[in-house]
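To illustrate the input format used throughout this study, we show a single complete record. The first block contains the structure-token representation of the backbone; no residue identities are included at this stage. The design step must infer an amino acid for every position from geometry alone.
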């Protein structure tokens, strides 16, 4: 099978590329390199790997990237609430227009499977603070980022459910952990970095919940869907993570303080946050056999170990 990874030089994409190559897949990464291509240096000469620079907003480039492709792992996007708010036009063009154009081109080119990286941010705020949301819970997007994810999910799983392509949406937990394209604008990585480098962390709204999942495990979930029987994943949606890995921000900084010594924590009271959700992940576990391999405490230790070496400046 030959897999196209859109956003293949990104935080999750660069990890997914390596996992696919390690399992013997032929991989083509497609990325506009807005954040550079350093994350792919060591795989550029791999016999099963090919890189193509391009943008999913360009139909000609997308069609070229899809030549000879059996499956698409679609990660290319303007990612996160702040970036989508700041670059709203780019977000709409990429996360919606570009995604639809990619799917239509994939359909035309005879692609068999399409796996879409969506987000648990789609849930917004839990109606019942004591409950857990599931895949059938009402979606309540409170940011442009989540609105566009919900919109494309609906396109894939409702409007195009009878397509010849087998499509699946994966609602990712908040990601953390080491990647060749490291990011420090993610809660676990950011808190660990600030504690290790500056010795302090400010916490706004310590009580608000999110689920967390290591980048390795999110990438593994995409491989799992590619390898799953069509009847299990066609026009289907799965939350990706572990029910035990729901944390509020106060709990995250507690885990950081267990690893990093002498951290000064400053709590700022905040009673309103549009996003507050705990997520249940039984469906992907029971139906596809997915379980995580790393936890938040292990992720904190991983990032702290890297920072202590000085290799990440």
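Output of the design step:
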């Amino acid at each position: 099978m030959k897999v196209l990874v859109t956003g293949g030089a990104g935080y999750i994409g660069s990890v997914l590329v390596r996992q696919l190559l390690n399992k013997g897949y032929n991989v083509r990464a497609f990325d506009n390199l807005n954040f550079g291509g350093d994350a792919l240096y060591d795989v550029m000469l791999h016999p099963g790997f090919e890189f193509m620079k391009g943008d999913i907003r360009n139909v000609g480039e997308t069609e070229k990237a899809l030549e000879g492709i059996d499956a698409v792992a679609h990660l290319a996007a303007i990612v996160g609430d702040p970036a989508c708010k700041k670059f709203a036009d780019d977000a709409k063009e990429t996360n919606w227009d570009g995604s639809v154009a990619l799917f239509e081109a994939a359909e035309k080119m005879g692609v068999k499977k399409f796996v879409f990286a969506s987000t648990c941010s789609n849930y917004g705020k839990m109606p019942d603070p004591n409950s857990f949301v599931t895949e059938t819970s009402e979606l309540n997007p409170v940011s442009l980022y989540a609105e566009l994810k919900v919109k494309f999910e609906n396109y894939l799983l409702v409007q195009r459910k009878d397509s010849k392509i087998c499509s699946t949406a994966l609602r990712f937990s908040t990601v953390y952990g080491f990647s060749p394209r490291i990011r420090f604008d993610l809660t676990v990585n950011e808190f660990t970095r600030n504690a290790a480098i500056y010795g302090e962390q400010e916490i706004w709204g310590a009580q608000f919940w999110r689920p967390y999942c290591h980048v390795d495990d999110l990438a593994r979930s995409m491989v799992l869907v590619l390898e799953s029987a069509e009847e299990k994943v066609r026009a289907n949606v799965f939350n990706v993570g572990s029910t035990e890995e729901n944390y509020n921000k106060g709990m995250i900084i507690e885990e950081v303080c267990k690893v990093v010594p002498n951290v000064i924590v400053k709590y700022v009271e905040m009673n309103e946050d549009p996003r507050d959700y705990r997520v249940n992940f039984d469906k992907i576990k029971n139906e596809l056999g997915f379980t995580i391999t790393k936890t938040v405490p292990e992720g904190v230790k991983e990032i702290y170990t890297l920072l202590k070496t000085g290799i990440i400046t």
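Structural context for interpreting the output: The chain has a mean pLDDT of 95. The CA atoms of residues 57 and 98 lie 4 Å apart.
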